[in-house]
Amino acid sequence: MWMIRAVLDNVFLRKRQSIKPAGQYWPIWFFHIDTGGCGGCGMELQALSYMPYDFHKEGFGFVTTPRAADILLVTGPVTHTMSPILEAVWEAMPKDQPSDFEEEEIRKPQFNFKGIITVGECAINGGIFSENYAVIGGLEGKVPIDITIRGCPPTPIDILNGLRTLFERK
Amino acid sequence: MNAVSLIRNAEPTQTPWRFRFDETRWCTLIHVLEKDPLLLMGLWCDGQDIHAVFLDEGQPIVATLALENGRYPALSPVREVASFDERIICDLYGVEVMGALDDRPLLDHNMWQVSMPMGRRLQFNENHKGLPHFYPSDQFFQGAELLEGWGPATGNMDPPFHVSVALRCGYILRAESQMGYTHRGLALRWCHSSIKEACRLSARVSAGVSVAHQVAFCMAVENAYGICVASDISLIRVALLELERIIHHLYKLAILAHLMGADLIAHRCMSLREDILEAQIPITGSRLLVDVCLPGTVTLSNVCRIGELCYKLYINIYEKIISLENTWRVYPGLMTRLMSLGSISREEVVQFGVEGPVARASGKEEDQRKMMPSYAGLWRYSSVQRQGTGNDRSLVLFNEVTESLRMLGMLADPLNTSSVIKDMGYWGEKGEGIAVVEGPWGPVLYWVQLSQGYVSHVFQRGPEKAIQLLFERSLQNHTMDKIPLLACSLGVNAAAFDL
Which of residues 79-138 of B touch A (CB under 8 A)? Predict the structure, then answer.
């Protein structure tokens, strides 16, 4: 885990104060990774993409490659087997946009903040799956987390409300 | 002598369904199973004995063999699906299997802090660096032009697993899956936990099939302590099982429709599912029906209104499901494309010991519900198709949804009472129980050993192992982009597989 911590510290602490507000016309792309849970949080995330929830209209979307993602959504307790995969996914995500991007003449509203959101108790603190030979536990206290969405599992509305707070960030 | 007679004539134990074998008799059983089609549900170890559980006309029957010098003769040469269990037992206990089909690790990829965590001697590991390695079988590369991999981080919402595929001319020649990414050490967590805690763990084995796990666990505990639950509790559990089946099938149909590009249908499936979830939350208290059962009772937030919920769902949803199925049937190209997805013959289903809707779509009519006393007068028939294609599996799911709704309609009156259900508490010093229920993807079995109100051992078995084997085989001659489709159509479930 020390490697994950080192990578995340390096990325987050550098630009935490200069995050641009998200644009209303430009979706925030999420990459989801289940790090070893029962799949309940994943099911609730899946429900967001369909009626009656308006996930896409809110300005969000899911991608199937971390290279196109802005934010990493983590569900489930982190198992020892998934830990290096989580790290690889994080490293594959693009870094924050350089600050001179904001100075471009035609500036599209752009969300350029690389972050991590934990969804569900397991991803936060391990939940019912505390640390053992196969499980590291949650990410809380191990890496900087931008938003935590609690619940076992949280409802789609809870998740959506949690994600909306991204737009409130300055 | 057939396999069942061989088992029943072995040395009896304190339970009427478990029999003790010596090694000679075990080897005879393996020999008999070459020709006997008796269904092997699973194989587990408790550190001293190895147990093989079979289903004889829906009833579990167990053969037990004491480990001699920490090893036992393999069942995998006659039941291929046993290979997964043998590999898991080896990973967890370090028990050697003689004559196994496959001796590669299945869950432990040298990433755990401890090797053989349930064995007699713990072996601590140094921190592993880098990604887990995939070790293919000897024949994996034969005839292959290209090797590719899929998973575990795919961006989709399902629990992770990895599939390595050998390709020729762009088509899959051979596929082998690597599991263990979601292994949470449940077998060890269950040991010495309280019954309530163990029930909470069983509810979180896998979302979507949570009620089946809870009910099977509770029934196994009740069986162990000789508790006979009240008939209204049994009926409420039936209602919950059928409710879960409806919610689960609609979810799977939505994902399948989305992957096939039929988003209109996907939205309608999910919308209906949300209507049901919305209606049931005030009564059950949990969207995904987690923590709704305990041994001897049910733990709903408003149990008095369960009959009203059943009636409401039957009246409001039944016609909408029929209409949705009709839309599915006429949606341009949907059924035609599904007909070419993962065709599975009845022989393959029997060979791998697959049960549930996947087996029923291939013409094997087996349903645990017809054996369960609480379904008496409710269960009518199980939908059966013949060709075993993706389309047949979808139609079976639709039919099961309508049948489940019909059952809920029938349950509305008997459950329309204002009964107050009390926590019955637990009694008894030692006990051993076993139970099977029909979950959304097939039978879910629990074996429990209890002592002083605590759990000594739990073995859980669902249809996942057999389905994983079938998934690997049915990927042959498909292109790689069909992997998520086929996984969804067959109900591949890594969380329930890994435990």
Answer: 109, 111-114, 117, 128-132
